[in-house]
UniProtKB/TrEMBL annotation:
One of its GO terms (molecular function) is transmembrane signaling receptor activity. PANTHER family: SERPENTINE RECEPTOR CLASS GAMMA (PTHR31552:SF29). GO terms for biological process: sensory perception of chemical stimulus. The chain crosses the membrane at residues 29-52, 72-92, 112-134, 146-169. It comes from Caenorhabditis briggsae. Belongs to the nematode receptor-like protein srg family. This is Serpentine receptor class gamma. One of its GO terms (cellular component) is membrane. It is a multi-pass membrane protein. Keywords: Membrane, Transmembrane, Transmembrane helix. InterPro entries: 7TM_GPCR_serpentine_rcpt_Srg (IPR000609). It comes from the Eukaryota. It is found in: Membrane.
Length: 215
């Protein structure tokens, strides 16, 4: 998903005048292509019967299988390496291109690219954690055990990171979230973050901000 976001940002910067038409046609094709490629690459897993085993060293359960799933596992690793490399490449050329056409790209597009870059950083971290596990399949080293513990959290955070990245980077999203769910802390949290993407005001938020300023 992050790689497709990077590709979308790149096309919106390089081909901003026809970007919507490009993705209206290519999104279903790309999605279907990814599903087909991953299904073919991991097809040997479909015939396996996995089971749980207890790992006393880590005090947790792991999934194992008596079938040879290494070919499928390696295919996933190769696909991951390709996806991460492509994301980094697309983000780099997008930033370079953006600096040459700043007057033609809206603030929204720049901020969306920034969100994509942060998501790509998270993707690189999750991939690096997986590569560490690949280097230590027996989980005997301290680094391998740490990577095993971090793996589910890194995977889940990569999946659900988009809302959190948007809240952190956008003052408008942050203010709207706080006003909707945590009105009491809206003034304090709205002023925190990485960048500002627009103005968003309400009566309650303005009164709270004035009170904090006088204090």
């Amino acid at each position: 998903m992050v790689t497709m976001m990077s590709l979308n940002r790149a096309t919106s910067i390089f081909f901003y005048f026809i970007n919507e038409k490009i993705w209206k046609f290519s999104l279903p094709i790309l999605t279907l292509l990814i599903v087909i490629v991953m299904t073919i690459g991991t097809r040997t897993i479909l015939s396996t019967v996995p089971y749980y085993t207890y790992n006393s060293a880590l005090d947790m359960y792991t999934i194992k299988s008596d079938s040879n799933i290494l070919p499928a596992y390696y295919n996933v690793i190769y696909f991951m390496a390709f996806a991460v490399s492509l994301s980094v490449f697309l983000n780099i050329i997008s930033v370079i291109r953006l600096k040459t056409i700043q007057s033609k790209i809206s603030t929204v597009e720049r901020n969306l690219l920034l969100v994509t870059i942060f998501s790509s950083i998270i993707q690189c971290f999750a991939a690096a954690n997986t590569f560490v596990l690949q280097l230590d399949p027996s989980r005997t080293s301290m680094l391998g055990q740490i990577a095993q513990v971090v793996l589910p959290f890194a995977s889940d955070f990569l999946t659900i990171s988009q809302p959190y990245v948007s809240i952190f980077l956008s003052s408008k999203v942050r203010a709207g979230f706080m006003q909707m769910y945590l009105k009491r802390y809206a003034a304090t949290v709205t002023s925190m973050g990485f960048t500002k993407t627009g103005d968003w005001k309400s009566g309650a938020a303005s009164r709270s901000t004035s009170h904090v300023t006088r204090f």
